[in-house]
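Friendly challenge for the regulars: who can give me the structure tokens for this chain first? No prize, just bragging rights.
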Amino acid sequence: MTLNPLFLGRLIAIGGNEDKANELIVLKRVVLEIGKKDCQVGIITTASEDPEQRGKDYHRVFSSLGASRIDIFNIKERIQANDRKSAAKIADLDLIFFTGGDQLRLTTIMGGTKVLDAIQARLENGALIAGTSAGAAVFSDTMIYEGKSEEGLFKGSVLSTPGFGFVGNIIFDTHFMARGRIGRLIQIVTSNPACIGVGIGEDCGVVLKGDGVAEIVGTGQVIIVDGSGIGYSNIMNIKPGEPIAVENVRIHSLVDGYGYDFKKRRFLTPVS
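First reply, four minutes later:
Bragging rights claimed.
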């Protein structure tokens, strides 16, 4: 029996390098999905090596899109992520936005902390969570954090660790077409065919709601890798570094307006 994905609430996963200066297609959709004009936004810059600048960048964008309050959380150490006052500020936010950078920084600094607990509580109680690049990769219960694109179909070349678990049985990868990451997503799905791989291109977002249906927004592409039909692979029988053989991996390519039903594992065309 195929396991259905688990969704804790409303999410928008962005593939990175989204337009922040011109048409703002993806970020406008983020604000639209909040569902109110005078929204309150929290920006988590932990993944970034230059958190102050990333905070300024997104403060400018969300201010221009009408946010009434914007809090920047430049959380650089676990002691900050366990600060009760910071966790309390999360409690009335309408949107929590994770910037890009290094997803392993996010999990090692924020995993198991009061701030992350507060974020998960807001997600379960109706707030929208969005993230770009590393800030989207961390949504998964299993998170890719390393693996060279050109070595993606060689056993052991892709490294993963637990993410924040905002969704279950879905694995996000970002900057997908620009960095040629199809091989590493196929390896992860081959290792665990119950999971659905979602490779998100730049300036592109996946809008996920609790019903398990996703919509694509932006100028890029999203690649779905479905391993539920896999009949055979050699991954159990080969040594690390050896090439992977696998049959019946199902792949879909989606663009703006198209969708995907994760529970039925079905490609959806735009509603006319």
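The domain at 7-263 is CATH 3.40.50.880 (Rossmann fold). DSSP finds eight helices and 17 strands in the chain. Your move, everyone else.
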